[in-house]
Known about the structure:
single chain, four-stranded antiparallel sheet
Amino acid sequence: MPELRRVMSRTRTGFTLIELLAVVIIIGILSALAISKFGNSKRRAYLAAMKSDLHNIGLVAETRFATENTYATMVAPQGSAGVTLTFEGTANDWVATATHVGLPDLVCDVRSGGGANAEPVCR
């Protein structure tokens, strides 16, 4: 009997398997939430870069039209990292498009008529 008391009164060191599993499950749930939020943040950042570049190209196009009275001579500038810009101009109007390598299924464009404040449309 004295040996049984000694075994039962021994203090526990370490964690039980259930405690470790609970911690692993909690970490897994938190990391899944963080990864989904991070992916959404990246998408919004890519979209903001495309819209910003289109806004800038609109400003350049309207400035060029004010000095040269045509859009036909303008060439698309370099976009932000990962953004590809195209510009098609005629004597009186223009259209610019932007794509991003991180969002291959999304194209944003902006057209003349709205002036320098034209809002890009993405689809």
